[in-house]
Specification:
It comes from Lentinula guzmanii. The protein is of the alpha+beta class and 499 residues long. It has 20 helices and eight strands. The chain has two domains: 265 residues, Orthogonal Bundle (2-methylcitrate dehydratase PrpD), CATH 1.10.4100.10; 158 residues, 2-Layer Sandwich (60s Ribosomal Protein L30, Chain: A), CATH 3.30.1330.120. Helix content is 47%, strand content 9%.
Length: 499
């Protein structure tokens, strides 16, 4: 029975079972998520969720919202898991298991950290063991129903993530096999997340709610709450209800033999991963064009040839919000050409609706080619003088064949975390999470970078995706050199300079 098989493996799992690369992958996954969760609080969704729930729900303040690790701010474990889950995913900057397009860390880590803080006394090796158990559970489960489960419209990060969170928390609580089976069953019945909600706050809600649901499943089971011992494989269980195909037993047979966490990847751009090759191609086209003394405002057409999944998942032609822009390859190419980068600052309402960005976006034509891999793209721009600048991205940065370096991952973390914490505290947070495996008590981790936040809550922030942004620069290059214009969303009149 698959549910028993998974629970038995997780209960028996020991830290000594892991190779050094598996441990390193787990630590990298955790600190990449933590940076996303801290920086993601700048968006409006986490603050809205906290303000909507905290006055009406909540128990003793035991657990941290990472972005609010100032003045010992805490909330109850449920709300902490919920808000950190939302914040860690709202920028679409988190990790990706490419074989399933699952973002595995957010659901598991959000639940696990909240419980570790509430419980106290959890050392780093036990925390990592529980974390890896949860991640492997959700990814093996995701593989067992891929691609049919995703193709029908489920958001597999959250549908599998609640089960991964239940396994992880159950492991941390020391539940036995039958009790963990009950926890898995309770998580199964809370299946959540549909692709209809991509491009809205509800996409990140999926992750927060899945983290919360998995955690609740483990706590209920620990207290004797009953479910089904065959929640995954029964005729009306999870795998048969959410998919037309499954091979869950075969996938679970590989638990502990092949580690899916080793195939986890980390995003260089905060948007749908299938559009990353096109963005990188656009950035390289811009760089080449600048070197030739070309003016980006002289572009007359842009062509991109991509894998078919790119348009399936990120084919929005006319996004109207920053969140929608994260699922528009047309927007990604436009900002790559104009800004020479793609950071959270380029995925705001102000940039998505900027007239210069919109005008260039309308010049982008995207065609699909099944022979083009998902980490590959061809991008070309034609200029008024007849010059055609073309770039081929063979393996996009952040892919398995071209991963982000440790230095690049640190830069990403500091860039995100410093938005909220300031650079000095961001460095402390990086140090804390990169050393999480050596901690004697993980519940103290937020205290290692606690202090007064340098930036306000996202509901008042000038960097939120609901209509404002940080400073970004567009480059218009003419024969006499580079002229740059700073775009600050709150200064509305600046748009005139870009026309």
């Amino acid at each position: 029975m698959a549910t028993q098989q998974l629970a038995t493996w997780a209960v028996d799992l020991q830290y000594a079972n892991f190779t050094a690369p598996v441990i390193a992958a787990a630590v990298t996954s955790l600190y990449n998520w933590a940076g996303c969760a801290i920086g993601g609080y700048q968006q409006t969704a986490p603050g809205i969720a906290l303000n909507a729930t905290s006055p009406h729900f909540g128990g003793p303040p035991t657990s941290s919202i990472l972005a609010l690790a100032n003045d010992s701010t805490q909330t109850d474990a449920q709300i902490a898991a919920f808000i950190n889950g939302i914040a860690g995913h709202v920028d679409d900057y988190d990790d990706t298991h490419l074989a399933t397009i699952i973002h595995p860390t957010g659901t598991v880590a959000s639940a696990l950290l909240a419980v570790a803080e509430w419980k106290g006394g959890v050392n780093g090796s036990d925390f990592l063991t529980a974390f890896i158990a949860g991640v492997e559970a959700e990814l093996k489960l995701g593989l067992s129903v891929w691609p049919q489960h995703y193709d029908v419209g489920w958001h597999d990060t959250s549908t599998t993530g609640s089960i991964g969170a239940a396994v992880a928390v159950s492991k941390l609580l020391g539940l036995d096999v039958p009790t963990m089976q009950q926890a898995i069953g309770i998580a199964c019945t809370q299946v959540i997340g549909m692709q209809e909600f991509f491009g809205s706050d509800t996409k990140s809600f999926h992750i927060g709610r899945a983290a919360q649901g998995g955690m609740i499943g483990a706590l209920l089971a620990q207290s004797g709450f009953t479910s089904s011992l065959q929640g995954l494989e029964a005729q009306f269980g999870w795998v048969h209800v959410v998919s037309t195909r499954e091979n869950v037993t075969a996938e679970f047979d590989t638990l502990g033999k092949s580690w899916e966490i080793l195939s986890n990847t980390f995003k260089p751009y905060p948007c749908g991963i299938v559009m990353h090759p096109s963005i990188e191609g656009a950035i390289e086209v811009q760089s080449t064009a600048l070197g030739k003394g070309l003016n980006m405002s002289d572009i007359t057409s842009v062509q991109a040839r991509v894998n078919p999944e790119t348009l399936v998942l990120t084919g929005q032609t006319d996004p109207e919000t920053g969140l929608e822009g994260k699922f528009s390859v047309y927007h990604g190419i436009a900002i790559g050409l104009l800004f020479g980068e793609a950071t959270p600052s380029q995925f705001t309402d102000a940039i998505v609706t900027n007239s210069t960005v919109v005008a260039l976006r309308k010049l982008v034509n995207v065609t699909t080619d099944a022979s083009v891999r998902e980490d590959e793209a061809y991008v070309s721009a034609l200029f008024k003088d007849g010059t055609n600048v073309t770039q081929h991205i063979d393996h996009v940065i952040g892919s398995l064949d071209n991963p982000l370096s440790e230095a690049q991952l640190k830069t990403k973390f500091i860039g995100q975390a410093s938005l909220v914490l300031g650079e000095a505290r961001a460095e402390k947070a990086y140090e804390a999470f990169t050393n999480i495996g050596n901690m004697s008590d993980v519940s103290t981790i937020a205290q290692l970078f606690a202090g007064a936040n340098g930036t306000s809550n996202s509901t008042n922030s000038t960097t939120s995706a609901s209509g404002s942004s940080g400073a970004s620069t567009l480059y218009f290059v003419g024969p006499n050199g580079v002229a740059s214009f700073t775009v600050i969303a709150m200064i509305l009149g600046i748009v005139a300079l870009l026309l």
